[in-house]
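Hi there. Long-time user, first ticket. I'm pasting a complex I've been working with (about 791 residues overall). I'd like to know whether the download I got is complete or cut off, because the file seemed smaller than I expected. Thanks.
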Amino acid sequence: MPLLAQLQTIYQRKDQLWLLIWLGGTLLLWGWNRLFLNAPALARVETGFANTFIIALLVILLSAALGWLSGVGLYFLEKAGNSLPYLTLSFLLNIIRSIPQIVGILLGYILITVQIQSGALQRPGAVIPVIAMVISLFVFLEISDLVRERIAYYRKRDFYNAMQVCGIPEWQIVNREILWRNSLAHLFNKLISIFGVTIFLLCSIDFIISVGLSGNVSSVNLPATLGSLLAKIDSKQDILAIGHVLTHPGYLPRLFFEHLQGITVAFLIVFTLLCIYKIANGFARRHEL
Amino acid sequence: MSLQFNIRIAKHRRTFIAIDHFEFPEQKVTFLFGESGIGKSILSKAIYGLLNPLRLDIHINGDSYPDYLRSARTQKFREAGFFVFQEPSSHLNPLIRLQAQLREGSLADAPGEQEILRHLWNHTPEQEIRKLLEVYPKPHRPSGGEKQRFLLAMAFKKLLRMQQEGRAQEGLYVFDEPSGSLDNHFRNRFLEMLFQRFRKGPFSAIFITHDYSIISEIYSRHADLREQIAFKELSRQDDRLVLQDFAPRAYLDWLKLEQSMETPPGDRRKPLLTMKGGYEIFGKKMIFRRNREEKGPDPGMLQIHRGEIVYLKAASGVGKTTLAKIIMGLQPCRRLEMRIGELAFSENTPRRVWQQQVWAKKIGMVFQHADEALNLNSTVQAVFAGLPIQPPLTPASIVQLLNELFEGTIEPAFLNQKVSLLSGGQKQRLNLLRTLALDTDLVLLDEPLNGLDFLSIQRVIAALKEKQQEGKAILMISHNEEIFEAVIPVENSYYLDFAGGV
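Hi, the file is complete. Here it is re-exported in full:
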């Protein structure tokens, strides 16, 4: 395909376009920081960025697994007329649903801190999966609900009955035909949104913890994320410098050389969330979801 | 003289329809056959000028579509012609009364409205027709057949007006599956009117249909027009669309020579399926009759024995498909009294009994619409995945199975083809094969010839005969009466009817 046609295709596929914009913007920012940000600060930003993304990726994997299992499990329990296990699982999920996500994750952080202080969570590498698990626990219901909606929708279609009367096992119809073959795009789109929600929640909570509980919590060495970096004193000064530019426009060029840490972190958060929003929208439009 | 078109239709730079010679004789009625989904409608819409040039990249005879639409000939096609859509609901405006739609635009002062309606609504009191004219079209009212007749009435009004003005020859009249929702009586009334008009003055018409029994009707009642009628078939050869002449004699001769599917000798004492009439569904009591004229309160009984093929007939909308779903336990009903082999079923039998004892063990069912019965996001091979067959189907055995109903050599790549990319006829054949592959005593077939071309119809009939010779019983539900009356003994027919309100 000629280059012009390829570019035209990418321009029409807004999800791919915004993914490229995000990758390009992030790489450009990293290159700029390599040139103008001091090495220790750059290392902190890189670690915070990597940790944030690893946690968000783990969250979407765990949410996909939990959501799929719980959605399918609930469907089969309800269908089997097995009321006690069905009611128990529904009750548990509704309890989780009733807790605001940010409050639930904050409670999870308290447990993680206790575990770290008691020595149960020693290795820094072990904390990241636990944080991902805590966040997943409060976001996976979106996947679970979607799975149940998709099954309910396709149950009314003829192909569900047609396959059943051909003797094809129901678990195969539900898992493979309905969810895998007919709902993957919907699930993927939801996971993109969960990726964005995770980054937002993680940054918000890490920021809250780092600002409000900085003295004690920093002693337990929670992994650095974009949110905790934003709460550091030098980042805060960098952000305040943006306000300073409003009254002293001549100060603007210095932002890009002298206040890079805070501006980079803030820009990464906002830019990433914007791009994820656009990617999810473009993906939904392209697949006519 | 003929209308000749070379058509290319692409989307996102991918050509999905291309034909070099799409040709029709001028001033003749051309019947266009071919399996569904092969492109008959879209090609006809393209030449009539109904496609959107902003959504599709279309070239006709080398011209871009906007240029084609601007050409004098295309404009005359539309000004002096009419296009009757396949799906009447998409043609009628739900916000305007039928009466007003019948008099819209160029139809406003077109003559003959009353006569046309009276002809198409034969036997219907004038008062009933007037009531219908006041209706805003909704999905459920008027019925599909009535909507279709309104569209035909519009086409005839336009035709009549153009004939009076001497311009009918300039127009193009396209009838896209105009008899899809009509029973044979109303279809024949429509054909009668079409040919009546044609005798008054010829015009160019394309009549898209899957209904091969139209040929018999033409040969028996409109034989004088044989020279003015062309039969064509659109088919795919080596991945290319080809429009060829269709020999009507081939169909008529096949019909004459086709042997009746007599029940092979065997044990008739124990029926495979017994269902008493008198079950109630949607507030109606349903009964079985052994012949059309039979009257009386007896609810009757449907009974099918091993090796028997039973033809269930009913007027459109009576509930043939619903009955099939009741037998399969997919549709609950009241006062159900049914036996499948040794098992008794009533309205209280839970669905899991069918699941455990009946589905794919005793009865298999082919659903009416392949588009809905198959998972369109699946692949050809995956359609057969999970069927309870021993030994399990391998790619090689699937190819062997496909060869029963598919022409040509099945390439292994075909197994990975997405179902949504197949033509309607290919989907229907997959739909049939999935059920025929099962080893069930009884097969329920709901409109098995839907969307098939003549060659596929012959193959399906042959496959069903083979199945019957193996001792399997078949319950046939189909509106293709001419074909099935030729192959199913008349004593094996049942009529489903209402017994009146409950």
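A couple of notes from our side: The interface with chain B takes residues 5, 157-159, 161-169, 172, 176-177, 181-182 of chain A (CB under 8 Å). The mean pLDDT of chain A is 90.
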